[in-house]
């Protein structure tokens, strides 16, 4: 009675050695699947020892085998196709390490910019602006922060210039009243 079993991952298919795939004839190309099954695990372990990360090593070896498969008609005729796949995997690991080192170096050169929080005057002004009606607030912000003229604000808002002047006058008066009360100084006493 003959018992056959499926080859396990990392084991060579029956009839091949783990070190080197069998070459029937120098002119004949070797089988990609056989090479893959025979060497994926050992190459992954080598790269895992080098990288320190098993999943990264698996990705690198997989990428190397993908590149070999894309060039299989040429790679299969090499004396040692496994050496080619190994070299590609190691080159990929080195390239990835260089990219990571460059990225980390760039991050270390970046300086954190510490911006001081808003001062008490800014907080008081923001709170006072929030209390204004929308039209007055918009007119004050556009005039004093965006440096738009009364004519430009009137065109943008689609209202007469007199309306914008009225909004600005009322907005300034309301801000003055709120800011003097907020700061504890009331000049109307």
Care to describe what's here?
The chain has 189 residues and is an all-alpha fold. Helix content is 66%, strand content 0%. Mean pLDDT is 83; it is low at 16-27.
The helix content, as a percent range, equals 55-70%
Poorly predicted tracts of residues: 16-27
The rounded distance between the terminal residues' Cα atoms is: 113 Å
> Which sheet architecture does the biggest sheet show?
none
What percentage of amino acids are in beta strands? under 5%
Total helices: the number is 8
Count of beta strands: 0
Structural class: mainly alpha
The rough form would be described as: rod-shaped
Radius of gyration: 37 Å
Instruction: Give the helices and strands as they follow along the chain.
Output: HHHHHHHH
Mean pLDDT: 83
